[in-house]
Write a structure and sequence with these properties.
five-stranded mixed β-sheet; 0% helix; single chain
């Protein structure tokens, strides 16, 4: 969420320096590294504002604990891709280098829940998808999104803030998570094993501006021949 984390989308961003009433005084654009600056300023009150490219969002306050952002998604003056900072005062001769703006591109997560017929922990040809598996995503201890698999066992959650998530899956009574294997991770299940009604996985990454389609959910039958309704 800081400018060093991902360079995509930060070059050429138009930044406006405004007076306390919101009237634009100067404009500049960010360089390839996201840097911008204004010079020869009077010691008065200012705000900064900008408009992000489609698909980008301002960082939330919780995303910027290590490096504060003067514009966040939590601000009342931030709506969608348009954002304005709070008022700050520049003192005589002061050079401020802390006026950072944290942004990130929204990501996606998916994509398949399947019945691991041979119980080997891998997706094999012909193994069917499982519909109506309920999926809840958590970030920072809060529910970030909820969805369920479609008739083919597929799911995709879009417009997610980049970062790591925890996943909770609610399963039909007839199935439980398959075993975990790490030899072939692209066809493996991310879920922990267990017999309860829910299963979990932690530290699932949603990349900035990209898709993680390896968040697959594998299950086996608790009793041979007894399938979910």
């Amino acid at each position: 969420w800081n400018m060093d984390e991902s360079l995509d989308g930060i070059e050429g961003l138009s930044i406006s320096l405004n007076d306390a009433a919101g009237n634009s005084l100067q404009e500049t654009t960010t360089d390839p590294n996201g840097h911008f600056g204004f010079t020869q300023l009077m010691p008065v009150e200012y705000t900064l504002s900008t408009m992000l490219q489609p698909g980008y969002r301002f960082a939330r306050t919780v995303d910027t604990v290590g490096r504060p952002s003067i514009i966040t998604a939590n601000l009342a003056d931030s709506q969608g891709n348009s954002g304005k900072s709070g008022i700050f005062k520049l003192m005589m001769g002061e050079q401020r280098q802390d006026q950072d703006i944290g942004i990130g591109a929204m990501g996606k997560l998916g994509d398949f829940a399947w019945l691991d017929s041979d119980g080997d922990g891998m997706q094999d040809a012909g193994e069917p998808g499982i519909p109506e598996v309920e999926i809840t995503l958590y970030q920072y201890g809060q529910i970030a999104a909820q969805t369920s698999t479609d008739a083919y066992g597929r799911y995709l959650v879009a417009d997610l803030y980049p970062g790591t998530y925890s996943i909770q899956v609610t399963m039909p009574d007839e199935i439980k998570p398959t075993k975990q294997q790490t030899v072939f991770p692209l066809v493996a299940s991310i879920l922990r094993s267990g017999d309860g009604p829910t299963a979990y996985s932690e530290d699932v990454l949603v990349p900035s501006g990209k898709r993680n389609l390896n968040c697959d959910l594998g299950f086996v039958l608790k009793r041979e021949g007894v399938f979910p309704l």
